[in-house]
From TrEMBL:
CDD domains: NOX_Duox_like_FAD_NADP
Transmembrane regions listed in the UniProt entry: 21-43, 63-91, 320-345, 365-384
UniProt name for this protein: ferric-chelate reductase (NADH)
Topology within the bilayer: Multi-pass membrane protein
Domain annotation FAD-binding FR-type: ranges: 100-205
InterPro entries: FAD-bd_8, FAD-bd_FR_type, Fe3_Rdtase_TM_dom, Fe_red_NAD-bd_6, FNR_nucleotide-bd, RBOH/FRE
């Protein structure tokens, strides 16, 4: 009987400990709440849920915010400092991305392909540099204010110095809404867009090979646009090691072949004959080409707005230097705030033998000072860069330069595919392209055993 009473008391005591939010030391209840948020994030990572309910998977992972908060309440800010460096860098990056996403960028034009694909062309600062295969996140408030979608950058900063382009294939509800907005009979005069990025690889490794074999399917060809333009730039202006480039691509329908028209930059200053490029295109579900009148593209031009800005890096060209300055200055500011808190607020309470400063309040203030320090320094650096960038733009606009002729009016539709295809670069590209209808690629016959190749997925 005595043993049974002790067992009941122990269970009752354990239950009370599980629901205890301690003022000092470890808080069990905070740890349990953090574990619930972690389990909710883990439950949505199963393949069936992630693929069928991607938005549920995506937005559930924002629970990392309360997870971190309650984790700090559970173990204390002192123990959290073990993982603080990585989380600190994440907060700096997230703050800068948020600041960049708040400005509206200048959307110059959009090209609508008959294969239900859209190329968006943005104005770009001349100082913005990025490597091929970079990606950029795009938000269209007219479609969804919360959804951000990543797309591969198809332009190249060497061949397209003042323009940044992405190609979007209609594959879902968001892309379908964009296509319908741009395809309506009365064209839009302006489309509000926000971006993050571009983000890309730190180095370019495909220049090391004598022969490149690039394999793609459908819209997976988009990363190769920037690569081929980079190779074309080096072949036209510098010594290029690459001696042979083979692009093997497959499409479901022949109308998708119009995406190949975007391989070359808009500028005609580059000679495609300087690049040893050969294209093997396969159309798997059709056995004959479509008529030429179904291959025409449409281009819509948008009205400029005084509030729009060209796409630029959040901190300019020397981003790594600014990142180091923000991290150092924000951490020094945090130490200053934390020292003031400890000396004039925590110490007078702890010095009293009868009271103890609440760990929960101390942890909350510490997290608040971390976020405040990062937000203050990152915002100051971002605003300073924006002012310097605005001065440069005003200086450029103040120069008395003659306006180029033939600029289309905003909202004017141009059916310019036939004119582009008649140009010399596109003729050379057409001559180097072999289209196979009703076939699938035979890699054994196309790729010689002696090739050194790079495979991009």
């Amino acid at each position: 009987m005595l043993l049974e009473l002790k067992t009941k008391d122990s269970h009752k005591f354990c239950g009370m400990q599980m629901l205890e939010w301690a003022e000092t030391g470890i808080s069990n209840l905070a740890g349990e709440i953090a574990m619930v948020f972690g389990l909710a994030m883990w439950a949505t990572t199963f393949p069936r849920i992630r693929r069928k309910f991607f938005e549920l998977f995506f937005y559930t992972h924002y629970l990392y915010i309360p997870l971190i908060i309650f984790y700090v309440f559970h173990v204390g800010f002192s123990y959290f400092c073990i993982t603080l460096p990585g989380f600190y860098l994440f907060l700096v990056d997230r703050c800068l991305r948020f600041l960049q996403s708040q400005r509206k960028v200048r959307l110059v034009s959009a090209r609508i392909l008959p294969c239900k694909a859209v190329e968006l062309n943005f104005s770009k600062c001349l100082g913005l540099r990025y490597n091929p295969t970079s990606i950029m996140f795009i938000n269209l408030p007219g479609i969804s204010k919360l959804q951000w979608h990543p797309f591969t950058v198809t332009s190249n900063n060497n061949t397209d110095p003042d323009r940044l382009s992405v190609l979007i294939k209609c594959e879902g509800s968001w892309t379908e809404s964009l296509y319908q907005k741009l395809s309506q009979p009365i064209p839009l005069e302006r489309l509000e867009v926000s971006v993050e990025g571009p983000y890309g690889p730190a180095s370019i490794h495909f220049f090391r090979h004598d022969t490149l074999v690039m394999i793609s399917g459908g819209s997976g060809i988009t990363p190769f646009f920037s690569i081929i333009r980079e190779l074309l730039f080096y072949a036209s202006t510098r010594s290029c090691k690459t001696k042979q480039v083979l692009l093997i691509t497959s499409f479901k329908k022949s109308v998708d072949l119009t995406m190949l028209d975007l391989l070359l930059p808009v500028s005609a200053n580059y000679d495609i004959t300087q690049l040893p490029l050969r294209i093997e295109a396969y159309v798997t579900r059709e056995k004959e080409p479509i008529p030429d009148d179904q291959k025409l593209c449409q281009t819509v031009w948008f009205l400029p707005s005084a509030t729009d800005a060209p796409v630029s890096a959040s901190l300019g060209s020397n981003t790594w230097l600014w990142h180091g300055a923000i991290i150092s200055a924000s951490f020094f500011t945090f130490l200053l705030f934390f020292g003031i808190l400890a000396r004039y607020y925590v110490y007078p309470v702890d010095n009293n033998t009868s009271t103890r400063f609440s760990y929960t309040e101390k942890n909350a203030l510490s997290m608040f000072f971390v976020c405040l320090s990062i937000a203050m320094t990152a915002t100051a650096a971002f605003i300073w860069h924006e002012k310097q960038n605005a001065k440069k733009m005003m200086l450029i606009h103040s120069l008395d330069r003659p306006k180029p002729k033939g600029i289309p009016r905003p909202g004017q539709w141009l059916y310019n595919s036939r004119r582009d295809l008649e140009s010399f670069p596109h003729q050379s590209l057409f001559q180097n392209t072999t289209v196979h209808y009703g076939e699938r690629p035979d890699f054994k016959s196309k790729i010689h055993s002696s090739f050194q190749f790079s495979l991009f997925e």
